[in-house]
Amino acid sequence: MDASTLSRAGGRPAGSHHFGLMLGFACLLSLGGCVNTSLIDRWKDPSFSGPPLHKVLVVGVQKDDGRRRLWEDGMVAALTHQGVQAEASYVVFPSKAPNADELGSMASRDGFDGVMASHFVSASQRTYWVPGDVGIGFGWRWRYYGYWGAAYGPGYPETEHRADYQTDVFTVDPAGGKLIWTGITRSVDMSSTHSVTSDISRVLVPALSKQGILAGKSS
User: Fold this and answer.
1) Alpha carbon distance 203, 211 (integer Å)
2) Topology of the domain covering 38-210
3) Where are the domains of the chain?
4) Which of 44, 74, 107, 189 is the least buried, fewest Cβ under 10 Å from its Cβ?
5) Do residues 15 and 132 touch, judged by C-beta distance below 8 A?
6) Residues of the chain with pLDDT under 50
């Protein structure tokens, strides 16, 4: 559910505020609130048949060290909850994310069978019109009222902020390993790095387990 559909205070038509409160209450009754992240694209190596990964090295490729640590800690926590052993790369490389050679060397040395690397792809925003009180009509009248209300009604503009992140999963083996899964998540109306990481991990980890990429509770 989009966070942008929730009511925000200020300048709203009568009735929309109560609707927003109802939506907010519904979110509180769901699993810890409304999830603002979705998996919009994915690819899995069709030749990969397992075994699923049991020990994963997590890498957040971000220049901001604080954000990188929050990202890696959040993903490690989600993987651990799923039953997968995981470690953040900043434990060994605290100043910046390891390069490809450093990453491969560490993963092989410490017995990891997989690497999960995430990076920021792009950001965007869109503005759309939220109508005020909906008129009553039947057939074409209801449809017509929708865009009539956008032009003349008591609605308001809403801006939605989006951020796309790509996550790649690699195997680690004597042959050098390979890319077995990649996906792009889209987060909407991000409030903090912590909330984005939490949302992305809640979407990614179960999906990876379901597809046989990760070991754990669903394998």
Assistant:
1) 13
2) Rossmann fold (3.40.50)
3) 1-34, 38-210
4) 44
5) yes
6) 1-35, 219
Q: Which residues of 125-145 are buried (b: 16+ CB within 10 A; e: fewer)?
A: eeeeeebbeeeeeeeeeeeeb
Residue with tokens 């009180």: 133
The dihedral through the CA atoms of 34, 86, 108, 52 has a sign that is negative
Using one digit for the tens of pLDDT, what is the confidence trace for 19-76? 333 333 333 333 334 448 888 889 999 999 989 999 999 999 988 888 899 989 999 9
| Residue of 92, 94, 165, 152 whose CA lies nearest to 124 | 165
Q: Name the 3-class secondary structure at 127.
A: strand
Q: What is the pLDDT, as a whole number, of residue 110?
A: 92
Contact 27, 33 (CB under 8 A): yes
Is the N-terminal amide bond of 46 cis, ω within 30° of 0?
no
